[in-house]
Task: inverse folding
């Protein structure tokens, strides 16, 4: 099975180079969306700990960017 690639992965890998190559041609709202998607569900936006009451297992869940253009489901 192939690993899925998300828009955020592409933005993180090539976003800075794309912004440099297109400097002056991207609007401020476009730059803000790119930044929000890059940071979505990462430590940059904070998070919380989810714990199972039955087994005690826990995991860190990072917060969503909540941007309406983000392809991640909130």
Result:
């Amino acid at each position: 099975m192939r690993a899925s690639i998300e828009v955020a992965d592409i933005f993180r890998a090539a976003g800075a180079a794309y912004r440099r190559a297109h400097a002056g041609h991207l609007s401020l709202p476009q730059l803000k969306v790119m930044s929000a998607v890059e940071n979505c569900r990462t430590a940059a936006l904070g998070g919380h700990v989810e714990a199972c009451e039955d087994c005690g297992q826990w995991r860190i869940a990072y917060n969503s960017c909540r941007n309406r253009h983000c392809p991640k489901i909130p």
Q: What stands out?
A: The chain is about 35% helix and 15% strand. Residues 7-62 form one domain. The mean pLDDT is 93.
